[in-house]
Amino acid sequence: MQATATAQSVEPGIIAQPGLRPVNRWAFVGVVSAIAVVYAPTVAWLLGRWTISVWHHAHGLFIPPLVAWLVVQELRRHRELPATASAWGFALLVIALMIHVLDTGIQTQLLSAMSLVIALPGLSLLFLGWPRTRAILFPLLFTAFALPIPLALTEKLHLTLRHLTIDLVTPMLSTAGVSLFAQDTTVHLANATVEIADACSGFSTLYAAMAFAFLLAYFTSTTTRRVLLLTAAAPIAIASNVLRMFLLLLLVVWRGPGILDTFIHPLSGMLTFAVALPVLLWIGGDRPADTRLNTQGND
Predict the structure, then answer these.
(1) Which of 39, 58, 177, 190 has its CA 20 to 30 A from that of 20?
(2) pLDDT tens-place string over residues 161-186
(3) Residue 15: its pLDDT value, please?
(4) Could you tell me if 125 and 88 are in contact, meaning their C-beta atoms sit under 8 angstroms apart?
């Protein structure tokens, strides 16, 4: 037996609709196509940044398809929510386009990328309304983790991570019987001098680990585990990078500095993710993905 609603409350500024009619679908296609053309250079710039190397925001490449999947799953799970049109969508779109226009003059590309993140919930409000936008709000906001952070904003953090890596790696090498001398962010070994540069600071691993921790926290069932995930992400990322640098420096001692010019160097960057992500997954523990993304009950 199915109950039929006889009345529906409508929030101010929201136009209630029984569903997305064909004319709305065509309007959606038209607006999205226009947005795609406007932001095509920005998307190309983001793709370029994501694919520079494993040291530079490589995790951003995986966020758009992940967000798209999450949005589809959540909308399927909340099929009962009304399709509405909210005037606030126009406001967000206007703000986003204003930022994009500003960036066309100063050519940072990052501001344009930020405006794209703002435009996504605007489009959702405009064509899906607040109830459904609220259901997919986390995936929409999660796209912010795809944005590269300019070095000018993270320079001090990079330097701090480099010094921290030196402070933690050198005692480990000494314990392993390696003769060395550390000076600032440089390690002087018997057969080579190795500088811990920004790429080796572990910032990329830290950024990716924080993104993954927020994603796991979204699926995790208890507040305690969420807090553990978000607080443990940074130490785990730093520890995995320290382990990577320790192993690399051992290889330099055993095989010479030429080892840093081989595939082993970038491969070691992937090692940090291979260590950090499973640990975070373990901390996440009992994730109720079967309940959060289960769509069977709404079919």
Answers:
(1) 39
(2) 999 999 999 999 999 988 888 888 89
(3) 43
(4) yes
Amino acid found at 56: H
> What pLDDT is attached to residue 1?
41
Mean of pLDDT over the chain? 83
Q: Are 103 and 80 in contact (CB under 8 A)?
A: no
The CA distance from 118 to 93, in Å, is 7
Task: Specify the long-range contacts of residues 70-76, CB closer than 8 Å, at least 24 apart.
Answer: 70/136, 70/138, 70/139, 70/142, 71/136, 71/139, 71/140, 73/293, 73/295, 74/135, 74/136, 74/139, 74/293, 75/128, 75/132, 75/135, 75/136, 76/295, 76/298
User: Rounded CA gap, 107 and 101, in Å?
Assistant: 10
Please write the tens of the pLDDT for every residue from 131-142.
999 999 999 999
pLDDT at position 236, please? 95
Q: Which residues pair with 14 in a beta bridge?
A: 86
pLDDT of 286 reads: 58
d(CA 244, CA 169): 10
- Is residue 168 exposed (0-12), middle (13-18) or buried (19+ Cβ within 10 Å)? middle
pLDDT digits (tens, 9 = 90+) for 99-126: 999 998 888 889 999 999 999 999 999 8
| Size of the chain, expressed as the number of residues it contains | 299
Q: State which amino acid sits at residue 269.
A: G
pTM of the predicted model, to two decimals? 0.80
Neighbour tally for 11: CB within 10 Å: 11
